[in-house]
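Weekly modeling sync, notes
Attendees: AB, CL, MP (scribe)

Item 1: holo prediction request
CL wants a bound-state model with heme C before deciding which constructs to order. AB pointed out that an apo prediction alone won't tell us much about the pocket. Agreed to run with the ligand included and paste results into these notes for async review.

Input as submitted:
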Amino acid sequence: MKYAALGELREGNHSQGEPRTLGYRRVRDGRVEERMIVLSAFSPLSPQALAISNLFVAILVIMAAIFALVTGILLYVIVRYRARPGQGEPRQNFGDTKLEITWTAAPLLLLVVVFFFTIHTMAAADPATHGRAPDLDVIGHQWWWEVRYPGSGAITANEIHLPVGRRMLVRLDSGDVIHNLWFPELGPKMDLVPGQTNYMWLEADKPGTYLGACAEFCGTEHAWMRLRAIAEPPAQFAAWQRHQLQPAARPAGGETARGGALFSQLTCISCHAISGVGGPTEGIAPNLTHFGERQTLAAGLFANTPANLAIWLRDPQEAKPGNHMPNMQLPEIQVHALTVYLESLK
Ligand code: HEC
Ligand SMILES: [Cu+2]
């Protein structure tokens, strides 16, 4: 692989100080090293995730207690009643009604308890929508996420913005194969099925950046089909949404203008839309209207920096083999101009 160290992908968490490393792809001693942090479903940060995690822990505790009890009794019996020399045949038993009722009723009772826990959890994690219009559309594509806000018309990719503490109804669809949307810290996961609309609630208790991923194998780059949810105070969210509706920043001139012209002359615009410039309305490729503001590029593969964008444009097939953006064989001057232009789209 030709590219050099990419550095680490860091997350600036709005609320808590230290950024944490999310993962990286870099070349060290001629070897490609990749690392992604493990997303944990055990640090629930939404009411939905908390309900699911509580159910899991409750069942785990109950089952661990039963396991300890059964294993304990078994070990006791093995030792206490082991065969001893000259002992002869043990006394024979033929049924014990009281015992049999007990060990039938006890598991039954336990399952009833677990059943009610589960019903309670389902109501908390996946409450009825009562015909509410979706706040957000998420459409899965091999291997990136299209994000639309039907109320306002805002469109972005690989990044969801949420008002903190507010429950958002997400409508899920797929452009090709079955995907699955999962933010482990935020709770439920749900399939995105072509031709069938599914719904899911998304909510975050605290402001911050939450990592999500596709959780259903969907082809070669499934592992790099990641996204983020950025939860921010409602006023900030509203401002973000208003800003998304603005057409793309006009190139001021120089290198930026050259990049802007190239974007329309090359075939970029037949796949990528930039509002105010043109492009398809269908989600063929990520909308780039405000690309410069996004944290990552290529669905979480790289931090969005000029250096990484140049690597992407030089050969997207080397960076993310098999993805649906062709290698355009761009000369270095065009890579540079496009990089400057795209990073200016704020
Ligand atoms: C055949 C359609 C197609 C063409 C032509 C195309 N792209 Fe792409 N592009 C894609 C797809 C699909 C992705 C998403 C790849 C992924 O993450 O799996 C993408 C991703 C990107 C991204 C990263 C976006 C993000 O938010 O992650 C940028 C930037 C980009 N393309 C720029 C360009 C430029 C500049 C050109 C023209 C030189 C171009 N593309 C031509 C299909 C295309
Ligand atoms: Cu997928």
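Recorded for review: The chain has eight helices and 15 strands.
Action items: CL to compare against the apo run; MP to circulate these notes.
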